[in-house]
Amino acid sequence: ALTPLAPLEPGDRFTGFEIVARTAAQSFTVRPEAGEAGITGMLVFGASEQLADNSAVLKALGTSLSPDAGQGSLVPAILAEGTDPARGAYLVLGIPQGEWLSALDRHDIPADQAVPVLQSLLLLAERAAAADRLLLISPAAVMLLGTAVFVPRPAAPPLPLSGPLLADPAYLPPELLADEREVAAWPANAQIVALTVRALTGNALGYAPAWHSLMLRLLAADPAARPVSRADALALPAAGTTVPAVMMHRTAFRTDIGHHHPVNQDAGGVWTWHRWDGTPVTLAVVADGVSAGSHSEDAAALAVEAIRSGIEQHWADRDFTLQRAEDVLLESGILAQEQVCALPMESTEDASATTLVAVCLIGNSATGIWCGDSRAYGVTPEGMRPLTKDHSWVNIMVDSGQMPLAQAKADRRAHVIARWLGCSEPPRIDPGFDRFRCELAAGDRLLLCSDGLYMYFDAPAGSELELVETIYRFGDDAAGAVESMVTTALERGGFDNITTVLVETS
User: Fold this and answer.
1) Do strands 148-150 and 356-362 pair parallel, antiparallel, or not at all (unpaired)?
2) Which 8-state DSSP code applies to residue 184?
3) Entry pTM
4) What digits encode the pLDDT tens for the residues 399-417?
5) What CA–CA distances, in Å, run from 206 to 212, 240, 411, 414, 490?
6) In angstroms, what is the C-alpha Rg of the chain?
7) Spatial separation of the C-alpha atoms in residues 287 and 353, rounded to whole Å
8) Which among 265, 246, 269, 250 is positioned nearest to 501, based on CA atoms?
9) Contact at 8 Å (CB) between 283 and 310?
10) Omega into 427 within 30° of 0, i.e. cis?
11) 14-68 pLDDT tens trace
12) Is the pLDDT confidence value at 87 over 80?
């Protein structure tokens, strides 16, 4: 009988490489016994058929530097391959140096980083298409170091597909979800890349319009509507690296009592001024009076007026920066809390109360505060980004791990809010304001609304995509978009008061 081979250990040699560490049962970190210092690799043993397929994929995709990103190998280089008589088939893969992070850990990356990432991945898509292969990637398969991209274990089965497709359906184009076997390689690969990059950029709030134009083409459901080549895809000007200054804010506001309430306890408004240097300054506010309070319509009106008055006193100041705007919002919010708490009441159970969300937009830059479950969204042609997170019983249950979201939403306590402006036991000077900041580009939108609107665009009543489509269908007509959104909420039941503010940038 053959004597079993001793396992490879650090310091052992194998076909010109020194073992550095074991990373799994059949893989090791290695370095060349001779050659450039600091070069490391991964020694992998496995079935000869599987390793041969891995090798074929890497050779098809190529390992030269990306001419667009200008740095880093896109896929591992093959440093050595073969079959050892004693240990079987092996590959030694070159691993780039550096502190690489999984793309799963990167969210909302800025345009100047997203553009080279997209360019590099489109290069892989092009190489895979040239080899008539389907590039299967997702954020879980991509590593990033600044703007450099590395795909350590690329999968690229040959076309037409001959077996089951093992891939995350969230990163597959419609033609593959329809189980087509013979698909055009480039359009499919390009959309898989776009779906992966969109997971890193979200709805790309603050990106230039050229980026959205490119992404919407790459994400088109019809393969024929996508860019016909990588050169076609990258023909758009730098795909969003330059964001022009926002010179105008177009606004609209509407509040409606709805079908089932005797009083409109919502309040809100939107006001625009022009700073000394011509930069537009816009304040948007929505307050939703808590129905359990005896006169919560007064609480909502007081909160809106306190915020408006605070900003109006300071927007013309020479030092009215974004930080100053945030400070004024918070100071005015605390004043609103004091005024609401001073309203007459018999007990804290029937005390007047309100939620509040307020945003001050200075040119491209926005800062906001909120307390309760009135919301703010940043909207682009690619979708909506929540800028606030409801202070609600539902989110407390979900965030604490006590309930999944679906169960919490179905609970009888789902409507309960956890923070509000108004009296409480013990009394609070600060009712619990949170804040946010964001950048907008020309063409982006800012949407504020009470739950009387968004409840009809959350599943199962509707979808946020409807809001995006409505907003952009009306183009520059902010008032028309607001009217359409409120009308839809009324048609779907209008159970609560409905208030919304829309700010368009150009």
Assistant:
1) unpaired
2) -
3) 0.90
4) 999 999 999 999 999 989 9
5) 10, 9, 37, 33, 32
6) 28
7) 10
8) 269
9) no
10) no
11) 999 999 999 888 899 998 887 655 568 899 999 999 999 999 999 999 754 443 4
12) yes
